[in-house]
Structures are given as structure tokens and as C-alpha cells.
Design brief:
Elements: E1 13-17, H1 22-33, E2 37-42, H2 45-57, E3 61-66, H3 72-86, E4 91-94, H4 109-136, E5 140-145, H5 158-178, E6 183-190, H6 196-203, H7 208-217, H8 227-238, E7 249-252
Helix pairs in contact: 1-2, 1-8, 3-4, 4-5
This protein binds nicotinamide-adenine-dinucleotide.
Nicotinamide-adenine-dinucleotide (NAD) binds near residues 17, 22 and 95.
Length: about 260
């Protein structure tokens, strides 16, 4: 399959981590529909391969790679794979993450390390290897998926808040350090978006329906977001339309942190 020649990302090569599900899958599909060749990286093999098949069916170009964002060598191999398979790297979406709904008291040291390894160290390592690759072709765009929970606190998500706050500031560090290499880094801060991750968190509550109602109620727009609504933010930041935007944080949250 030849890459699409038209679209807002025509000719660009992208990696989307956590691309098998939720916002990552929506972003991979949208990027491919807009002309990018996409590496869908995830630990969920069947779902990731299904995303790639759906992209191919729609006339796009994508490859699945099993890559664990908690493992250094697999992250390096992911960047190498994109270059070997497609020749260059223009866009990195650091989207893979895990959640933990526990307080500081209830979180074990192992759980803390696990969340930090994937949500923070994974972003650092992917950036570490993507930056030199992007520099070789004059620049690129790095989009880090943080969270509304990377901006404001809430009870009971200690490690997740810490990880998403770290991603927010790491993004600004990457942005100012590599701006003159033509590399733009920006963060996206989703609110409550209807994905397996959110459903799992709500289903862990005593009354999931009541929790869903509360989440909607605390969101000014009064509903959950859809993965595609975040994917469109990624598309804008990945495309040359945002070429003066560096170190910005884009809230896509139905007004959650505006209140
Ligand atoms: N859904 C929400 O309400 C919400 C809100 C704010 C931020 N976010 C963030 O959005 C991003 C996407 O989340 P989502 O809601 O689409 O979740 P999701 O669970 O649907 O998708 C996350 C994907 O990441 C993958 N993943 C997990 N650990 C991995 C690892 N070690 N290596 C590679 N892949 C791994 C999973 O297999 C999954 O396919 C995450 O960074 C999440 O923290 C989600």
C-alpha cells in the first residue's frame, strides 16, 4: 500500500504509542486518513493489528509493532523500526499510559514505580530516541498526552497525577530545548473521554452509573468526550498548521479545568 499523497499529514511518518485502543487508535486512524504512514505501537497485539487492518481497509498505511513503553530496549527498537520501515520519523505521539486510582497511603512502591515507568520514563525514552531521528530530517512534532489530571488535583489518583504533571513539564523542557532543531513538543490534556481506560476506572467504583453521572456533571459540557475529539487535537499539533506552537498545553476536556 502506497502512502496517501494528500491530506494534512501527507508524506509524514508517525509513531502512536498505545495505538491499539481509545484515543491512540482514533489518532492512528485519523493520521492515516490524513496521509501519514503510522506505526501503531502497543502491548495489545490483537487490538493493534485490528487497528492496522482497519487503516489498510480505508486505504491508509500503517504497521503494528509490539512495544512495551516500560522497556527501554523496546522503545529504542520502536524508533528504529519506524526508520527502517518508512525511512524517517516526523511525528511521535506519546499516548500509552496506565492509571491507578489510589491515594498516597494506599499506593505501594511497586505500583508507583510501574506508573512512573510507563507514563513518565516511557515518554522520556521515546523522546530521547525520537529527537535525533527527527533532527536528521530537519525537525518534527512530539505530542505528549498528559491529562486534565496533569493540571489539577483530585482525591485518590496520587501516582497518576504525579505522572501526568511530570509529562506536562517534560514537554515544555523538550519544547524549549529542541525548538531550534525544528522539533515542536506540546502536551494535550484530555478530560473524561469514553475509552476502555475510563470505563475500567468507572467500573471499579461501587456504583459505576452514579460515577458516570458525577463525571458528566463535573464537566461543563455535560457529557464524556469521544476519542476522535482528542485525535483532532493531535492532528492539528502534528500538522504544519501549528508550526509556531511550541510548549503549549491543549485542554480537550469539555471545560473541566476552565472552572
Ligand atoms: N480516557 C480518559 O478519560 C483520559 C483522560 C485523560 C488522559 N487520558 C490519557 O489518554 C491516553 C490514552 O488513554 P485512553 O483513555 O485512550 O486509554 P486506553 O486504555 O483505551 O488506551 C491506552 C493504550 O495504551 C496501551 N498501553 C498501556 N501500557 C502500555 C505499555 N507499557 N506499552 C505500550 N502500550 C501500553 C494499552 O494497551 C492501550 O491500548 C493515556 O495517556 C491516558 O492517561 C485519558
Amino acid at each position: 500500500m502506497n502512502p496517501k499523497k494528500e491530506g494534512r499529514l501527507a508524506g509524514k511518518i508517525a509513531i502512536v504509542t498505545g495505538g491499539a485502543s481509545g484515543m491512540g487508535a482514533a489518532t492512528a486512524r485519523l493520521f492515516a486518513a490524513e496521509g501519514a504512514s503510522v506505526v501503531v505501537a502497543d502491548i495489545q497485539v490483537e487490538l493493534g493489528e485490528a487497528v492496522v487492518r482497519s487503516i489498510a481497509k480505508a486505504g491508509g498505511t500503517a504497521e503494528f509493532l509490539r512495544a512495551d513503553m516500560g522497556r527501554h530496549e523496546e522503545i529504542k527498537a520502536m524508533v528504529d523500526f519506524a526508520i527502517r520501515r518508512f525511512g524517517r520519523l516526523d511525528i511521535l505521539v506519546n499516548n500509552a499510559a496506565v492509571e491507578s486510582g489510589k491515594t498516597e497511603v494506599d499506593t505501594s512502591e511497586e505500583e508507583w514505580d510501574h506508573i512512573m515507568d510507563i507514563n513518565v520514563k516511557g515518554v522520556f525514552l521515546a523522546t530521547k530516541y525520537a529527537v535525533p531521528a527527527m533532527k536528521q530530517n530537519g525537525g518534527g512534532s512530539i505530542i505528549n498526552i498528559s491529562s486534565a489530571y496533569g493540571i489539577v488535583g483530585s482525591p485518590g489518583f496520587a501516582a497518576y497525577h504525579a505522572s501526568k504533571g511530570a509529562v506536562r513539564l517534560l514537554t515544555k523542557s523538550t519544547a524549549v530545548t529542541h525548538a531550534r532543531d525544528g522539533i515542536r513538543a506540546n502536551s494535550i490534556h484530555p478530560g473524561a473521554v469514553d475509552t476502555p481506560l475510563l470505563r475500567k476506572a468507572m467500573n471499579a467504583c461501587i456504583d459505576p452509573k452514579e460515577m458516570e453521572a458525577r463525571v458528566k456533571d463535573s464537566t461543563p459540557i455535560g457529557r464524556l468526550g469521544q476519542p476522535e475529539e482528542v485525535a483532532y487535537g493531535c492532528l492539528f499539533l502534528a500538522s504544519d498548521e501549528s508550526k509556531f506552537i511550541i510548549g503549549a498545553e491543549l485542554s480537550i476536556d469539555g471545560g473541566m479545568v476552565a472552572q
